[in-house]
Amino acid sequence: MPPLELDPETMRRIGYRVIDTLVDYWQSLPERPIGTRPTRDAMEALLNEPLPTTPQPFEAVLDEFLMKVLPHVVKVDHPRYFAFVPAPNNYVGVLADTLAAGMNIFVGTWMVGAGATQVERVVIDWLRQMVGLPESAGGLFVSGGSVANLVGLAAARQQYPEALQRGRVYYSDQTHSCVARALRILGFREEQMCVLESDSQFRLPVERLTEQIRRDREAGWMPFCVVANAGTTNTGAVDDLNALADLCAAENLWLHADGAYGAPAVLTEEGARLMKGIHRLHSLALDPHKWLYQPMMAGCILVREFDHLRQAFHILPPYLQDKESGVRGVDLCDYGVELSRGFRALKVWMALKVFGLEAFRQAMEHNLRLARVAEQTLRTMPHWEVVSPAQLGIVAFRYAPPHMEPEACDSLQRALVNTMLEEGFALVSSTVLKGRTVLRMCTLSPRATEADVVETLQRLDRHARRLAHQEGAE
Ligand SMILES: Cc1ncc(COP(=O)(O)O)c(C=O)c1O
User: What pLDDT is stored for residue 471 in this prediction?
Assistant: First the structure.
């Protein structure tokens, strides 16, 4: 047997064991604790070991993973994981990832990966149709929202030759930090990133933006790009895409939107209403690994003119010259930052075909309903304040009993997150809105029930009362 090979019988045996493990995990997930937050010392003591030199049975290593590693990750696919952006999964996507890894399918060039490239183009075109961009639009799969925004903004920079010298980019204080990081990577200076305070609904204020652009032109800046939100991480807020598209058309600016989280919800009534004008964008980040229920890593960038990506990224070194002779197709490595690219589109392709689009829409409608249930429940609970109503599956709220100082309230919300994690039943996360710490619940799991939402809030309430009592406020 050559090194690193296994005989077919062993391959089957351990493969089936992995599938059985996955199905058991899947079935038992709602009863499992959310996870733990172990200390670094504890993890080092549990897992540090010398570089392995002798072989061990696969089953022993799998058991070690199950006993030592799995309990110490927070389960982002848990039905009661309402923190940050949950990552509910679908089993067809999991199997597709297994196939893509098992056959190590390369989707960098047409010469090597024509079939897979065409599947990726088909899925991209389905996403394009979902958001209503024109047929000239295209895009590609990337690792996630951070890289999707980076690639979209690189395309924008390429279209404005003077952007790096005197360009200015505009976005609200609710914009995900990956946008500022992308701009930094692309070579923009802090003073070229103009962050506007969001309005009372956490949206980019269009009038103030218009005024800012006028003042900046007078001061010698070259405004060239607006980054809108199509679903903020904090509250699910969506900027007024139509008004921004009008402004960008009048001012000749690139309109990019970060819809990494929210854009797939355009399939729902609420999402379509909030995202009117999404078809007018120049570029859009949209993550199938968030609200299209796919396993990580699957982000996506769509651009209005597919060729704008090629203009930003195409380079031909001699060792790749063969891809440019003979039959020619689309070399996706020329449209983004990665040459070696796995077959991320396969999971979306298979899951959409197996379940059908309607199942995705229904799952999203369920998610939206759960957030509304959370909001309604909170409104019946004394001392709980809804800071941002249910919007695209997110509700932000705060326990604020009378006589408790705002700073003490802030720490109480943060303490609640840790208490929930220690308890292990459910998890929410905290953020800061208009200077105050709030909790947020993001109800993205199709497996979460209304009872899960209500019980999570009841537990939060019990913990909040106890913590406030300890503080002497009640
Ligand atoms: C709105 C938004 N943009 C970008 C990102 C970053 O995406 P990723 O974590 O896939 O890089 C997130 C992550 O939650 C997000 O919610």
Answer: 78
pLDDT tens readout for residues 411-427? 999 999 999 999 999 99
- Which pLDDT score is estimated for 433? 98
Q: d(Cα 131, Cα 300) in Å, to the nearest integer?
A: 13
Q: Residue 425: which of 375, 460, 394, 450 has the closest Cα? A: 460
Any atom of ligand 1 within 6 Å of the Cβ of 260: yes
Which residue, by CA, sits nearest to atom 16 of ligand 1? Answer: 233
State the burial class of residue 442 (Cβ atoms within 10 Å of its Cβ: 0-12, 13-18, 19+): buried
Task: Specify the CATH class of 106-342 in words.
Answer: alpha beta
Q: Is the CB of 175 under 6 A from ligand 1?
A: no
Phi/psi for 407 (5° steps) reads -65, -40
Global pTM reads: 0.98
Question: What's the CA-to-centroid distance between 147 and ligand 1, angstroms?
Answer: 9
CA–CA separation, 99 vs 358, rounded Å?
A: 25
Q: Which two tokens stand for residue 62?
A: 């799998």
Q: State in Å: Cα 175 to ligand 1 middle.
A: 10
Q: Is 429 in the pocket of ligand 1 (CB under 6 A)?
A: no
The count of other CB atoms within 10 Å of the CB of residue 404 is 18
What gap in Å lies between CA 390 and CA 367, rounded to an integer?
A: 10
The verdict on the CB of residue 261 being under 6 Å from ligand 1 is yes
Q: What residue has token string 């802090």? A: 190
Q: How far apart are CA 193 and CA 186, in angstroms?
A: 12
- Residues of the chain short of pLDDT 70, as ranges, are 473-474
Please classify residue 386 by burial: count the beta carbons closer than 10 Å to its beta carbon, then call 0-12 exposed, 13-18 middle and 19+ buried.
middle
Pocket test for ligand 1, best of 84, 85, 174 (most atoms within 8 A of CB): 85
The DSSP secondary-structure symbol of 410 reads H
Amino acid letter, 375: E
- What per-residue confidence (pLDDT) applies to 472? 73
Give the position of tokens 């960008």: 248
